[in-house]
Amino acid sequence: MKVYYFILTLFFCSISFAQTTITGTVVDKSNQPIPGANIKIVGEAIGTVTDFDGNFSLTTQKNPPFSVEISSIGFASQTVEVKTKNQKISAVLAEEETRLDEIVVSASRAPERVRESPVTIERMSVRDIKKSASVTFYDGLENLKEVHMNTSSMSFKSINTRGFATVANTRFMQLVDGMDNSSPLLNFVLGNLIGVSEIDVASVELLPGASSALYGANAFNGILFMNSKSPFTHQGVSAYGKVGQTSQQAAGNNLYYDYGVRVAKAFTPHFAAKANFTFMSGTDWYATDYRDKDLVNKVGIDRNDPNYDGINVYGDVVRTNIKSVASGLLNVGAITPAQFSVFNAILPNMEVSRTGYNEVDITDNKVRNAKVDFSLHVRPWATSSTEWAKDIEIIWQSKFGFGNTVYQGANRYYLNGFQMAQHKLEIMGKNFFVRGYVTSEDGGKSYDMEFTAININRKWKEDRVWFGQYAGAYVQSTLNGATPDQAHAAARNVADTGRFLPGTPEYINAFNQVTADPDVLTGSKLVDNSKIYHSDANYNFRDVVKFAEIQIGGSYRRYDLNSFGRIYTDTPEFGGIRYDEYGVYTQIQKKLMEDRLKLTGSVRYDKSQNFDGNYSPRVSVVYSAGEQKNHNFRASFQTGFRNPTTQDQYIGFNVGNAVLIGSAPDNLDRYREVLPVNTAVGQAFAGGTTSVMTGQNAYYNSYTAASAQQFAALAGTDPVAAAALLRRTDVGLVKPETVKAFELGYRGQVGNFAYDINGYYNIYNDFIGDLTVVAPLYGTAQDSPNIGGGPTDSGFQSIHALTTGNTRNYQLYTNTDIEIKSLGFGAGISTKFYKDFEFSANYNFAEFDFDQAKDPSFEAGFNTPKHRVKGSISNDKLFKNFGFNVSARWSSEYLWQSTFVDGMIKEMTVVDAQINYNIPSLKTVVKVGATNLGGNEYIQVLGAGAIGQQYFVGLTINQ
User: pTM above the 0.85 mark?
Assistant: First the structure.
């Protein structure tokens, strides 16, 4: 408790010293105050920012004379000399007509102007956040050039840059104050669930291409940097609140609210602290796509189909060949041999699925997210006369994220009470940093929607009983003169008699039992207590080596996976799963020709415990032309690589219609299951009533799903030709994938117009993907097995397994031998015109190419529109204290591919708008906004809810 009292004392008490106090006002050329301008004593680390009236007050132990630097985004910096104590400063900042002089860090791990960046970079400033028409600043990232969002839930959006991304975008990296936000268990970013509060954002930078040369294996297709404000320079209490309504055809109109508070204080030049709290709550977009998942062969199919498998209907993946049920009934004595003959003659040779439950009945459809963070900042030598020492800062930071949301992978998962925490210790200075942090997560009460429905059904009636009743009713109806369609309908009605209906006490009781049970055979709970331990360091020799700027750095990471055998093969029998990765890098930059030519070269070496090491080189050149260096041309080449994720290596996850099996060599034997064999002949071939299946069967004794489907389609009419189509699975174990990335670009200014144009061409090799296979429970998979080989032939036995449904579907993780190429082009323009109006627009083109015939089963999962157009018009000073912003975006139709469902996503047009009013006397901004003004609902993830409209009123104080 003493620690807590100490922290509270730090936040709510202050210490005063007799020092020099500088006050002043910062305005623009129209004499309008500039809130949020940075005031910094030259040569010192401490500073402050102006309030809503443009006023500031800064106290220092330094005696005059000294200089103060005043800066704000969109304005030229100004330096003012302080000659006396208690001097009052009046500064008028001139507006900059371009963003080319904004400072970024991420592209080269060193401060540089945007114009000098060797690669494409996008930036969102505090000013951009304030004027955004989106509900949150994270949503507003979608308006940046090259960004496409994949929305799985209202509170779970993943960023897609340059394609090849699903909701779990493992090719994209997100750093918040230097910490990787990825889930330790599944290696993908959970949106902004444990990110940063919008009133604590200092800057957001996005690198949309490969960045492995500086940031390691996970920065394969892009990286996002979110940096928070320092309590030394941004002090005080800030708060925001938003309340509004979401509107969707399926969900209706529902309340939405979001609020947060930030407290920061620099107690002395040596010590500062801050804390943030945010909370959001609302009703999620209802997922109500009831089309069959087979959007190619079953167009127009509805629930009347006996083998229906709805996109947002769960539990209907449990299916069997209804003809084979007759043998099971005979074996248990439910029917006589004479009756078996009748059943066998009448029952059709087709799959029948159990009746499922809608997603809206499997979740409460609520989204919540709470974020808490605090940090302590110490500058031990802030007042030292030694230049290198006074910039040294020690930071302890803790971040916590809690909430409910929906994640879509192979199934849809409700992350209920999900928790994630990060703790960081960092030492940084002018030219270096050393940091270490740990990320931990707890699945809370999360569950798999598919298995929730499966096991609610089984709580009520076992599968064998349900299918037995179905078969009996079908035969009886047929004997009574019913048509096949009528017989199927009657059979389902009989089998579903007494079914637990949503909302009834029986259903609620079964739901609670199933979602609390982690055993996949009886429950659906997801268990996760995994961790990542990470450290990295960087040193810049710019003050030591003068002929060029040289940096060195490195990182180390340990994965500690613990799903208790529910998701990974980390059962107590085998122990936990732990493995390490490390990397080192160096970079050299040199400016020539009066700083017009900038050359950069870097190389990184990374090694994962389970794979050979990889080198990632990058070379780039930037040339600045024109008298003012306003025309900047850049070219770069780099290689990147991505290590297989923990999921690619160690997953062993039953998702109902398949089992996901990671391909680390030791994982193949770690996964083991016992499956029933359902016919007398099959049991003879298997040597018993069950068959033991492992990862070895999945990878080395299976048929490709494509050939198994071709076999099934032809087996009834020409079994010999059908058998000739079968192909044994022949894939290697997963290994790192690589990319060669070429990029050209131009940034420049002509008059009042700023331009940013870029093009890229990527070549991917050993691309990591997944492959669905069908493994027979007995027999040996082989190319074109001999259907006439007889019962002793193992190939014949495998054919029998396929025809009787004695199989197991697996999803494998492997690399394709196909070389995949992608290319893209982007162009952006921005300008300021008549009376402070601002206009910006950008266009992106993206496509990929590969030879599908060389690997028919491979799915690239590009999931990116070929054409995207975005634009906005705004004016912060339309008239006194009043501003507005309207933004719009359009994207073309595109193919969505994922392990959950494949299909087309329609083109979409979305318009967002906001108006805002500034109340200087209260240091408050009121914002009224609406998203998707056209009201046309759209989807960004096939299987997720259609995105409707949001209306909100927001109040921000002292941002």
Answer: yes
